[in-house]
Amino acid sequence: MSSDEYAKEPEDVARLIIKRLNEGDADGVAALYEPNAVLAYPIDQPTTGREAIREIYQEMVNAGVKFGNESSLPIVQFENLALTSTQSADNTGVRVQVVRRQVDGSWLRIIDRPADSSS
User: Is the CB of residue 26 less than 8 Å from the CB of residue 57?
Assistant: First the structure.
């Protein structure tokens, strides 16, 4: 599996999450989130913490979920923070994330909102 590859740019986080989930690597997906990150899934009951996020992705892996590649929208960056987003592959909304540059120069998600169908 590819968990040793890290996100060198903000947009790499989404690409690596898709790659790792499609490889069945829930641990590798969770490693792309900060330890206290928040995943707005389910949308009305956000999940907090890397281990809880890993469990959500493990359920997806167990269910055979595969992610398609999605087009990145323009990134908004301020110092060590970046707002990233993609148009969902099924065109039902926009996925929005906040990532933060780590001390080693890599990027990790701190806030993840998988979909906003109201867009």
Answer: yes
Q: Using the 8-state DSSP alphabet, how is residue 68 labeled?
A: P
Our CA dihedral for 67, 69, 73, 79, rounded to 10 degrees, sits at: 70
Length of the chain: 119
- Strand 33-39 to 107-116 pairing: parallel
In this predicted structure, the answer to whether residue 2 has a pLDDT above a threshold of 70 is no
As for how many domains the chain has, the answer is 1
pTM higher than 0.70 for the full model? yes
In a domain, 16, yes or no: yes
96 is a domain residue:
yes
CB contact set of 52 (below 8 Å; sequence gap of 6+): 39
SS3 40: coil
Q: Which residue segment(s) compose the domain that 110 sits in?
A: 12-116
The residue-averaged pLDDT of 61-76 equals 92
Asked whether the beta carbons of 41 and 52 are under 8 A apart, the reply is no
